[in-house]
Specification:
The chain is α/β, with parallel strands linked by helices. It has helices at 3-16, 19-26, 30-44, 60-88, 102-114, 126-135, 213-225, 239-247, 257-262, 295-305, 320-331, and strands spanning 49-50, 57-58, 91-96, 118-123, 140-144, 152-154, 156-160, 204-206, 233-235, 252-256, 266-269, 277-283, 285-286, 289-290. A five-stranded mixed sheet has the order 4-3-5-12-6, sandwiched between helices. Strands 9-8-10-7-11 form a five-stranded mixed sheet.
């Protein structure tokens, strides 16, 4: 017995005091409604309606059961509404690098809301974004890939303590453009005022986002080619601690420009594009293959990660300069 359908017939008949009007209200034939009432009476073991009179009246048993029947129908209706709302507002979790600007992530969330999609941002290190897509806890994620094979490129540079009263970094050339930093520039120089000993070089701190095997290997080999002292590169640990050390002038921090600017640090890009970050926006693997990533989502996630826009040809993958740098980094 479909209990809900039978209770609907019962409550409608009570409300209308007529089998025919109740059947019309429910959009069913009167004989079907009568059968449902009789089945319900057999189930409860008593008459729900007095049929001996010209007008249908509700029996004492019918009146006793009426509020409970209405409660069951109301709960069933609310249950259906909750289920529909859950389906429509199912959250899709997006794995993003730590340190993304909150205002950029807010744009992603708002864009999803405008399209009827609830997006939840989750800042995770690279390895956890990989495992999140694999186990289904993430729907989409920005995945680290070598920059020469990436759909999204994020220039990396070095953040340092900003000079007093100088909003722009000190590495600005005569043309007004920021001069890119070569790792060779970081080698200690002999001081004229000393006995000729090399001053200690500032350590280069790396964030968790850049502690992926291929990126670390490239950076270590590039530092060795540039003649930097061993041990100059070291993991930053917590980002807040690394920023504090950088802003105090005790280190430089390898990071993207939005991250540096967000915290008041000076920043200049690395000349070697093979050391920049590369990302692909990927979807979790379902039964029929990877989940398709909407184009609007990919664009906004790229911006949130600090992707390059309007980069000159010399920095674009496929250009002679970028390809040469990438080949050198890959070969060591």
């Amino acid at each position: 017995m479909d209990l809900l359908a039978h209770l609907e017939a019962y409550v409608a008949t009570v409300d209308e005091s007529s089998f025919s009007r109740a059947a019309d209200r429910l959009g069913i034939a009167q004989p079907l409604l009568s059968r449902r009432i009789k089945t319900l009476e057999a189930h409860f073991g008593g008459l729900l309606f007095d049929r001996s009179r010209r007008q249908v009246t509700t029996t004492e048993l019918g009146l006793l059961l009426l509020p409970y029947a209405q409660d069951v129908l109301d709960r069933a209706q609310r249950l259906g509404q909750v289920a529909r709302s859950a389906r429509q507002a199912q959250m899709r979790v997006v794995g993003v690098p730590t340190g993304c600007a909150p205002v950029a992530l807010a744009r992603v969330i708002r864009a999803g809301t405008e399209r009827g999609i609830t997006l939840g941002m989750r800042e995770l290190p690279p390895a956890e974004r990989v495992s999140g897509l694999a186990d289904g806890s993430l729907t989409y994620a920005l995945m680290r890939v070598p920059p020469e094979h990436a759909g999204v490129r994020v220039p990396l540079g070095l953040a340092s303590a900003a000079p007093p009263d100088a909003p722009e970094p000190a590495t600005t050339g005569a043309s007004g453009r920021r001069r890119a930093i070569h790792l060779e520039d970081l080698r200690p120089r002999r001081s004229r005022a000393t006995t000729g000993e090399l001053p200690a070089a500032l350590p280069i701190l790396t964030l968790t986002e850049d502690e992926v095997p291929y990126a670390q290997d490239r950076l270590i080999r590039a530092a060795a080619r540039a003649g930097l002292p061993k041990g100059l590169l070291r993991p930053a640990g917590p980002a807040a601690t690394a920023l504090a050390e950088t802003l105090a002038g005790g280190a430089v921090l390898l990071c993207a420009e939005p991250f540096a600017r967000q915290h008041g640090a000076s920043w200049a890009p690395l000349a070697d594009a093979a050391l920049h970050r590369g990302y692909d926006v990927q979807g979790a693997r379902g039964r029929r293959g990877p989940v398709d990533v909407p184009g609007w989502l990919a664009v906004l996630l790229a911006a949130a990660a600090g992707a390059a826009t309007g980069a000159p040809d010399t920095a674009r993958p496929g250009s002679a300069a970028a390809d040469a740098s990438a080949r050198l980094a890959a070969r060591g």
